[in-house]
Amino acid sequence: MTTQTNYGRRIGWGTAGLAMSLAALTFGAPTASADVETFWVGTANYPRYAGTDYLLYATTVKGAGARWVIFSDNGVCIGGTRTDSVPGYTPMAGITWIPTTAGRHVLTADDGQTTKSITVDMEPPQAGTTPKTPPTPTGCDKLSQLLTTGSGTGSAAIGL
Asked: Where are the alpha helices (DSSP H) in 29-151?
């Protein structure tokens, strides 16, 4: 038969109390919602032409802090970036998009919590112009996000 000392009971109760406190903090704490609120093409010129660069912007909930937003064109990632987190302002992410084909493009902004989509119709490249080549997408996978976080990503990287 083993006897337990008051010291042993106190450690046990202290450990149980600590575990309960951590569980309450982990499961009971409200989480900040960082839903994509708005998504738009920054250039309002019509018609829009393939081979021309356009700026895509997405905003998340004010006060949500920095979030990672992935932009897609017809389901294919065209880039991901972190929202800027400036106190008092709505977090915004932006990338440059250069469509390579004419026709309908369904663009999507996804912050991992919600997505917003818009549809844009593109005309063939203008006659007499040299279509631009889109950059290689970055920030589409977790490794890219880890490597590019804090290194000039966000809307500051595109000149906002």
From this structure: 142-148
> Can you give the pTM of this predicted structure?
0.69
Distance of alpha carbon 98 from alpha carbon 5, whole angstroms: 72
The DSSP element (H or E) to which 41 belongs, if any, is: strand 36-41
Structure tokens at 3: 């006897």
Whether the pLDDT of residue 152 is over 50: the answer is: no
* Adjacent-strand bridge partners of 46: none
Show contacts of 138-142: CB within 8 Å, 24+ apart. 138/79, 138/80, 139/68, 139/70, 139/79, 139/80, 139/81, 140/70, 140/77, 140/79, 140/80
Q: Calculate mean pLDDT across residues 156-160.
A: 40
| Cβ-proximal residues to 121 (8 Å cutoff; 6+ apart), any chain | 47, 48, 103, 104, 105
Q: Is 76 helix (H, G, I), strand (E, B) or coil?
A: strand
* Rounded Cα distance, 57 and 47, in Å: 19
Tokens (6 digits) for 147: 């490597």
**Top-confidence residue, 26 or 32:** 32
Beta-carbon contacts of 136 under 8 Å, excluding residues fewer than 6 positions away, are none
